[in-house]
Structure formats: structure tokens, C-alpha cells
Specification:
Layout: H1 3-27, H2 29-44, H3 50-83, H4 92-95, H5 100-127, H6 129-134, H7 155-167, H8 177-196, H9 205-210, H10 227-231, H11 248-259
Helix pairs in contact: 1-3, 3-7, 5-7
Bound molecules: zinc ion (ZN) (2 copies).
Amino acid sequence: MTATESAIVWLQRGCNLLALLCLSASRSEAALAQSKEITRSLLEFEDLSDTAMATVLVWREVKLGVGALISVVAVTVFWMAYVEKLVWTYNFFGRHEYNVWWFISSIFVYMFFFDAWFYVTHRWLHESKFMWDTIHIHHHAFKEPTAFCQDAVHPVEAIVQGPFGHYLPTLFFPIHPLAHALFGFLSSIFAVAAHDGRTWDLNNHYYHHCAGKGRRNSFNYSLYWPLWDAVFNTRLVFSPSCDVTNTLWRRKAETAQRQV
Ligand SMILES: [Zn+2]
Ligand SMILES: [Zn+2]
């Protein structure tokens, strides 16, 4: 084994160890208690000044995001090292001729399977009381999320909806590695835009945070487009209380100004 290969192996082991640490830390009693306390205060929007709210909100998003990010990278590295080569589509383009139609078809196949997986697992995170209480409630602490909220999820949720959703289409269709990497990157960009709430959000994910009430009373579960929400009648097209140009902080500031 060359020095580079051995460095890669050690990097993979390090990543997987970090993932294990991340998962176990996120499940510790102390971490859960602290996390739930912050979640409660954010959900209730009480006793916090505007500045404190903004600071706590973004820091909480970033803190959750770092743990989720490490877990996602570790699982991806594990998949690439040990699982990918067992899938029938592995190195498909090294063994077959291909043209531009493969690339174009890949876009639709990837988006179709990724979004179906996202819808099903997202519904599961809401429908199961256990999954909601221990995993998904952390993401819903952010009623008026920022762009940083894209990755602000429990590590388990990040793994299920990140690498699992990303690799699922390759079980059904050979996607060129370059196209696959590009779509994965674009999915993250799309999710950032969806949480920012101002543009490129075809399925109004911002309403899912802002207008959704708790575990059962929710809608707009898909990420990319409204297909599955329309099919299963879980689509909310407009919510006047969630006008993103009139956020909680801005409403408060305007109210304060009127009172001066
Ligand atoms: Zn949700
Ligand atoms: Zn979200």
C-alpha cells in the first residue's frame, strides 16, 4: 500500500470514529437535556430580546449543523469505501458506452428518487412520536429559520436524509459520478435557499417551519417540488402569517417604532 492509500484509509477511519463520537454525544442525557431546553425556549418565543433571539437562533443552527455535517461526511466516506463497489451501477460508465442522454436522464431519476425518499422519511419523522420527540423536534425549534438551518438537524436525520437519499437513486439507475457529485452539491444549495425562504423554494419549506404546528399538524414535506405533497394532500400553498418579508423580528421592530 502506498503512502497516499494508507493516508486515505486512516482518514476514512478517523471520519467514521468522529461519526460514532458525534452520534453518541448527541444521544447523551446531558446533551439531550440542554438541547430540549433551548428547543423549548425557541418554540415558545418567550423571555428573549430580539438580539438574544437572533444570536441564540443562528448559533443553535450552526452548532447542530456542525455535528450533522461531520456525521454526513463520515457516512459518505464509509459508503464510498465499503458499500458503493457492491452496487450493480458501480463503475457502469467504465464498462459501457454513454452519451449526453444519460446525463439528462440522471437529473430526473435523481430528483424523483431523492424527493420521494425525502417525503417518506420526513413524514416518518412527524408520524412517529419517538422520532419526533428525539430527532426531528430539534429542526422544528426554528420557526423562522435562516439559511444556516439547512443542516441544523439531529445527526441521525442528517444521515437518513443526506447520504442515504443521495445514494438511493444509484440503486436503480447508473448515474455518472460527476453528475452525481454535481446533483448532491446542488441539493445542498437548494436546501439552503429553501430555509432562507426568499427564493427558489418551489414547495414552500419555510411554511413547514413557520405555519406548521407540532408533530401532526404539518404540510410541505418534500424538498424539491410539490409532487408528493399534492399526491398525498399535504400541500400548503400560501400562509399570510409567514410572509418572509415581515419576519418576527421585523414585526417586533415595527411595533416598537410605532409605539415611540
Ligand atoms: Zn418537519
Ligand atoms: Zn427545514
